[in-house]
Here is the input.
Amino acid sequence: MKCHMVDYLTANHWETLLPKGIQQGLLNLPREKLYLMPSGALDLEDIADNKIDEELCLSSVNLSTLLSIIRKHSLHSLGVTTSMPQVLDLHGSCKIPVLPMTGIMSEKKSHEVEVMSEVIARLAKGFDANWIMDLGSGKGYLSSSLVLQYGLNVLAMDSSPVNTTSALTRNTKLEKRLEKMKTAEKYQKEGKLIKRGKRKKSKKVLIHKPVSSDDSIDQNEHVHGSYIGLTAFITEDTDLLEILKESLAASRKQDAMNGKVLDTVDNHEGVLNVVQNDRKDNSTSSECEMGKIDVLNNPLEPKGDKETSLGNQSSHSLDEHRLGLVGLHTCGNLAASSIRLFISNSKVKFMCNVGCCYHLIEEEFYENPFSTKKMQDTDVGNGDNPNRKLLEEDQAEGESPSKNKSRAEEAQVSESQQEHTPATVSFDPLHPSEIPNLSVGFPLSSFLREKKFALERNTRMLSCQPADRLTEQSYNGLNSLYWRALLQVLLKEKLGDKFNASQVGRIASKCKDFAEYSRKAFEKLGLNIEVTDEALYDYERNYANNREKIERFFLLRSTLAPLIEGLILLDRLAFLSEQENIKAAYLVQLFNPVTSPRCHAVIGVRSK
Here is the structure.
């Protein structure tokens, strides 16, 4: 688990890490069965252990035994998960009819938002929560769904000002589209013709899918909630209620500003406060953007008050507010911070968090060796290397190239940003140890902390593998795996052990052979290595017999991914269960694991 695929050839992983029995079991497994391993779908009777020498079977662990042990320790086999209907029956409301939205997000994001927004809305209604705090809100899809479809008030917080601004813009556009949908449906019911103006062609179109009579709602009575977008770096010391008070106060100021925007300053550790600031230009460089959608009839306030707005909610009334804390794919330590925030803020009545990016977690009993300083000290490349802070390419499977591109862009901090105050610096999430006032993200439970348990970075990287997706869609990155391991052999021979850079980015798909791959990698790493194409072809020929083995090793290793992820999730569940002020905690599978590999939510509730 602690190895790295980059070192597969240089460290001879096949011989040094796999017992002979497992080696033979993997080689005997037909290729059509091979990809069933990661998800646990492989029938253990299909493993041809009978072809292994009897003496070897007695002296070595075989493949079927190993897979059986792994399977027995899966979350499903352990019986530690709770079904979503059970949780909602205990703590949520009945099903809420909504105005449907499809076609505006990718299939993956649409699935996630549709499922999670319903769960949050029903929990919010069950606990009479009137503000939802969305941590790590990103592009704001979840927040927009809660506001526009379910009429909830949402404070969306993200550490990226670009995300905050774009989410606000997207939310406003979605509101306008929904209004047009309501008008169109009204005309349709009345038998009137729908006036259609000129429309630009678009790849993504908002579609209103029909709803059944049981789920139908009167579109004219559908209400929208309020939306606030805030740029802030959240830690466990953040006072959520105070942030909400300041955000609402800033909204009242904005109502009177008429032409000015909001910015942020550092007031106390872990919190960015909203203050007034004149707009100097039309750029989006402000650290905070506040958005308000007209509340036609706020469902969380008396129905008679149709003039309700953010600005009308006085600060003293917030003391009676009940909050919900949510996060869809909160990155790295933010998931652990969310849990601690839920525990320490009594006004938060429930939490629903789906974490991701386990490789970015800061561990208590393991020192992160990949700090920015170390990478700079050990990088022997002379050129710029904008991709060295990306995820290691064998673990990036399942993430879109655009997501990796955005991470690369966010990892580059300009000189002007470096001179800002701590409140406005764009911290590098790939190096969480350098972020001030940030607590560890693992372990959380007293059980693992007493054991000083550590996973280490490569193990956490492995936990990010999309096991079910590998089984469903196979793996198309074999060239990337093999060529990268082969490149490491070349680099070690040419540069020696002092070379420690491992990031070359996603270049394999753009290359026809190893020679071209090597040239592009040299350029990415800023290296000037003199080697002929014929010599590069020789490398590939000399190691050709390893190509099949590296694929089988990778898939066996990926079989351990759900086990490691399960350990991280159970640690969070145990930590919540240890708290006396928390009524109940649950681990729930929300999403289809093929569509959304990080599919489990940690849900915690207080007494109503």
